[in-house]
Amino acid sequence: MVDDEEVQGSPFWDWEFALEAFPQMFMAFLEVTLLVTVVGTLIAAVLGLIIAILIMVLPKPLAWIVRWATNFIRMTPIVVQLIFMFWAFLWMDALTIGIIVFGVHYATYMSEVYRAGIESVPKGQWEATTALSMSAARTWRKVVIPQALRSTVPSLGNYAISMFKDTPFLLVIGVAEMVTVAGQIGAPTFRYTEVYTIAGVLFLAASYPTAVLVNRLEKRLAYAH
Predict the structure, then answer these.
(1) Could you give the 3-state DSSP secondary structure of residue 10?
(2) Contact 101/85 with Cβ under 8 angstroms?
(3) What is the tens place of the pLDDT at every residue in 17-75?
(4) CB distance 81 to 101 below 8 Å
(5) Is 93 exposed, middle or buried (0-12, 13-18, 19+ CB in 10 A)?
(6) CB burial class (10 A; 0-12, 13-18, 19+) of residue 12?
């Protein structure tokens, strides 16, 4: 038990403590925070596109069911979804549940982005594919999706960054991601300044390059268009 007076009288920043905490936090960042973000983003990007296409091609009753399920997931907190899935699938690894929930939750947002991108494709493009007797699959693959992606990349990138910053919610299902590990390291000595500063710097170090990459990709696609 650390004496309160000792803590209050300690330096504001202890470099030795920070250097000792960094390796453990960095490993938590790689093994949990980054893993959940990368795999969750891949799931969300693919599933979001599938949802958007299904809503547009399915008969109205089936499209309504897909849209209702999408809205339900999007309008409920991700924390609630994590807890529900954790207790509903106790046999499943908590980290796997976290990846699935993050992927599906953000897929519902990305599906709206894809839908807007698909609807932005000029009507003449659809008419031209009909005139050329192109199959529906080829129309989507060669004409519609490539054009839709140009206008959706910035929003998709922003959702990937948002997912990255939401990973501390994994705490509710017992997954020790970087921020949770920071709290565990700081708790015995009440030294939280160093560990949470390191967590913030690692978040920034990962988010900023992603934002720059998305901006460059957006400009490149705009020039190509």
Answers:
(1) coil
(2) yes
(3) 999 999 999 999 999 999 999 999 999 999 999 999 999 889 999 999 999 999 999 99
(4) yes
(5) exposed
(6) exposed
